[in-house]
Amino acid sequence: MDMFVVRGGKPLKGQVRVSGAKNAALPIMAASLMADGPITLHDVPDLVDVRTLSQLLGTLGVISERQADNALRLEVIDDSPVVADYELVRRMRASICVLGPLLTRRGRATVSLPGGCNIGDRPIDLHLKGLKALGADIRIEHGYVIATARKLKGARVFLGGSFGSTVTGTCNVMAAAALADGVTTIESAACEPEVADYGQLLNAMGAKIEGLGTPFLRIEGVESLAGAEHHVIPDRIEAATLLIAGAITHGEVSVENVCIDHLSAVLDKLNDVGVRIRIAEDPGGSDRSTLHVLPSEKLTPTECSALPYPGLPTDVQAQFMALLSRADGISVVTDKVFPDRFMHVAELVRLGASIHREGQSAIINGTEKLHGACVMACDLRASAALVLAAMAADGESVIRRIYHLDRGYEQLENRLNSLGADIRRMNDCEENVPVSLRLPQSIENSSSLTTSGHVEGAARLEDLRQIRVDSAETLAPLQSPAASKAKQEPAS
Ligand code: EPU
């Protein structure tokens, strides 16, 4: 397993380009199951999640081939398989996006339920409700969703839930409706740009979908869908992460390939916090801008809530919290999409942040200095928040379990290093932990330790590390180093 060793305190400076959006690319790749010809996608980031989905699609008869410039070509060569196996699905929740395409194109889908998740409950009841409304027969057996339908029929579907709409659920129902008989209307559809991008691809394949980007979709079913070529939108979450990287290090960073229309809530909040950003629109008239983060004097505290789009994305909540931990006063961050998505709080506290959780909110008492520590990433965006905080901290930090980060950011450390950060990817072993972070002799030799329960007598360094790992295991299933990346936790 890899870890990061981060030496903090360096203001970032330079230019960096945003990659294609992971959360657009994944459902879009799954849509290739419905195409009667090849799908060529441009700007598909080279991520672990993308590779996992290619593997899953491979088991479903789709060959995928990486091409130059981050293009990916997908083509169905066998349209008989209908089973998405647990071993692959549990590694990535976005695997659920094969459900709608398989059902509508092949008449049957047996897709494993993804299982638990570190960011909170992730039910799929709305996906199933939508597919049932179109006439699918659905049952759950032995941890699998078994969906069948000879021919789906257009219907009126309401996709709102207690926490808003559903992003991947809207994609699944849209896909199913695209090849159904008649007209489907989806009310309370997710409006996230990734959902609109998915719809754009379906339309390029010959679907008839209106209302993309709004909560009301009208889908007129067609007989078949053809191959197509499509450019994936830039990743707004990565863009926000890079902007915050500039701000938190008091750096001067230019972030290229940003759709500012997708980032309104983020830019508005950064402005509230006192982060100065200059926008340079593309002189060629495209919707891709370059955003220049300028060094800010001090950061102002704020209150913010993660909400469905166009609100502040839950996927930047952790990174924002890292930023606010350096603001001059008390901030409150609430997550209304995933109210339990706060596992990063305890790790940010290890880096010197002063954060206290209250229900679905966290109260952050900004501090001038963060300090290096050993921390553990618990999900993709939490990993990004820890990298940001570690870059802003004095001294060295170790971030473990960075396989979470690799799922959703392409070579983040290399890109941050190109801006002047000091992040080394190393094998996670005791020798690679910087001396500054090894346990002080005084603690090592102490006769009792009470933090995590019951260590009596002389505590050796290995014992203490083991305790740290064991307590983390109660939060998320731990993979042994030998189990390596193949056994990753189910995640977003
Ligand atoms: N929900 C239900 N029932 C459902 C589906 C969702 O109650 O059937 C609830 C969820 O529990 C949650 C809310 O609705 O409270 C939103 O969940 P949604 O279904 O929209 O999430 P998702 O489609 O599973 C996508 C992203 C996530 C992102 C969320 C919210 C992908 C592959 N994943 O997940 O991305 O956080 O939307 O915007 O698109 C990430 O990239 O780190 C990540 C977690």
What does this structure look like?
The protein has 492 residues and is of the alpha+beta class. The chain contains 16 helices and 26 strands. The strands form seven sheets. The chain has a four-stranded mixed sheet. A four-stranded mixed sheet has the order 2-15-17-16, covered by helices on one side. A hairpin with a 2-residue loop joins β20 (354-358) and β21. α1 packs parallel to α7 (193-204), α4 packs parallel to α6 (167-178) and α8 packs parallel to α12 (380-392). It is globular and about 65 Å long. The protein starts with a strand and ends in a 19-residue tail after the last helix. Uridine-diphosphate-2(N-acetylglucosaminyl) butyric acid binds next to α1, α5, α6 and α12.
